[in-house]
Specification:
Order of helices and strands: HHHH
Oligomer: single chain
Number of strands: 0
Largest sheet: none
Number of domains: 1
Structural class: mainly alpha
Number of helices: 4
Length: 98
């Protein structure tokens, strides 16, 4: 099961990337179309593509800021909090015999 997990993650990443690229291509192609007014299917699809981009940007921002906070906490703050526990006579190479 563990060997399939990276494969599935890669496939999902490729699907997401392809959907983003195709959505952008669709929006560029039909940006100046002949709109039929209320209930235009092309306008509806363009709105859906814009919502996809907004959602992905919001998610990426949230995940990125969370990752930065976790990194800061784990690798910057925790070593200072637990620093006294890392200083031992063995690490300082103090000779304990008289």
């Amino acid at each position: 099961m563990k060997k399939k997990s990276p494969f599935i993650a890669g496939v999902l990443c490729m699907v997401l990337t392809i959907s983003m690229v195709l959505s952008a291509a669709f929006m560029m192609k039909y940006a100046r179309h002949d709109c039929t007014g209320d209930g235009c299917e092309i306008c509806h699809q363009i709105v859906l593509c814009e919502q996809l981009f907004e959602k992905e940007a919001t998610d990426a921002t949230a995940y990125g800021s969370t990752a930065v906070l976790v990194y800061f906490f784990v690798f910057v703050l925790l070593p200072y909090v637990f620093y006294p526990f890392h200083e031992t006579p063995v690490r300082r190479k103090v000779k304990l015999s008289c």
